[in-house]
Automatic annotation (TrEMBL):
Entry protein name: Quinolinate synthase
Enzyme Commission identifier(s): 2.5.1.72
Pathway in which the depicted protein is active: Cofactor biosynthesis; NAD(+) biosynthesis; quinolinate from iminoaspartate: step 1/1
Residues annotated as signal peptide: none
Spans through the membrane: none
PANTHER family in the record: QUINOLINATE SYNTHASE, CHLOROPLASTIC, QUINOLINATE SYNTHETASE A
Species of origin: Pseudonocardia endophytica
């Protein structure tokens, strides 16, 4: 059946035939389909597993499937390849990048490190394989505080690439010898404190779920500590943590400050709760490059394969494994 038949209108929901065809082609390819929480609803629904980047990479490593189809952005597929070097890893569109991962290159990191030769380099998992290879220990938004706290207080820390997550860690640990790279994700930086405050006022009984990468994370903490919003209503969470919190909260309404694709999983996890985006325009164009058409082509033709140089992968794997050993790595973005 042709792609046109399965997807008659690019704007329309994919047909049940598309769903069946993707599943059948994945089975024939011995592939496991993984979808990040920010993917389009149809991609999330057809996948074997939906989650955050680190949880998906672990599932990929533990899976018996010989091929991993990673519906997410490129650094996530690279991380899966680093943890599963002998498996074939596909991403339906290799152009799906990430503005945060692209905010620092391996050359820039080497230069920064040369200015602080005794520092420990901590990288958020949203980095390229080349940057991970220059990193001492990776972290997720769940264990960033634990990772930095595990470093002797007299050692300098270089934290990258996300300035909002770095500011959060520095504030929690009150650590003055921690330098933070000025990177940001264009989507999360666009969710600002003014919008969050206005929404919190308009919905006085709602819980606030805030991703620490967001430009509004500082405002969320301020709202909580200034008494504007009861402290127990503000939850700074990774995307995986948001799903757990949705199941546990007693709130009827929740304001969500992260990429809007997250709402689909939250509504599935707790259909009785009214989830609202703090900023409905917070959509990652890179994540949305994984279209139903691209996924169909990927399982049909084996495109686009992700390759990571063996030596780079080896060094990056050490940094990722250190991350897994510290605290509760939970989840990444
Ligand atoms: S939402 Fe931001 S951090 Fe996440 S993949 Fe998109 S650009 Fe990267």
């Amino acid at each position: 059946m042709s792609v046109e038949t399965l997807l008659p209108d690019a704007a329309a929901e994919p047909s049940p035939e598309w769903f069946a065809e993707v599943r059948e082609l994945a089975r024939r390819r011995d592939a496991v389909l993984l979808a990040h929480n920010y993917q389009l609803p149809a991609i999330q629904d057809v996948a074997d597993h939906v989650g955050d980047s680190l949880a998906l990479s672990r599932i990929a490593a533990e899976s018996d499937a010989s091929t991993i189809v990673f519906c997410g952005v490129h650094f996530m597929a690279e991380t899966a390849k680093i943890l599963s070097p002998d498996k074939t890893v596909l991403i339906p569109d290799a152009r799906a990048g990430c503005s945060l991962a692209d905010s620092i290159t391996a050359d820039q990191l080497r230069e920064w490190r040369s200015e602080h030769p005794d520092a420990v380099v901590v990288s958020y998992v949203n980095t390229t394989a080349a940057v991970k290879a220059e990193t001492d220990v990776c972290c997720t938004s769940s264990n960033a505080v634990d990772v930095v706290a595990s470093i002797p207080v007299e050692r300098e820390v270089l934290f990258l690439p996300d300035q909002f997550l770095g500011a959060h860690v520095r504030r929690v640990l009150d650590r003055t010898n921690m330098h933070v790279w000025a990177g940001e994700c264009h989507v999360h930086a666009g969710i600002n404190g003014a919008e969050l405050s206005a929404q919190a006022q308009a919905h006085p009984d709602a819980d606030l779920f805030v991703h620490p990468e967001c430009g509004c994370a500082t405002s969320a903490l301020y709202l909580a500590t200034s008494g504007s919003v009861p402290e127990d209503r503000v939850k700074i969470l990774s995307t995986g943590g948001m799903v757990d919190a949705a199941r546990a909260t007693g709130a009827k309404e929740v304001l969500v400050a992260t990429e809007v694709g997250m709402l689909h999983q939250l509504r599935r996890a707790a259909p009785e709760i009214d989830f609202r985006a703090v900023n409905e325009r917070a959509s990652c164009r890179y994540m949305k490059m994984i279209t139903p058409e691209a996924l169909l082509r990927s399982v049909r033709e084996g495109t686009d394969e992700v390759h990571v140089d063996r030596e780079l992968a080896e060094r990056g794997r050490t940094a990722v494994q250190r991350m897994i050993e510290i605290g509760n790595p939970g989840s990444g973005e």
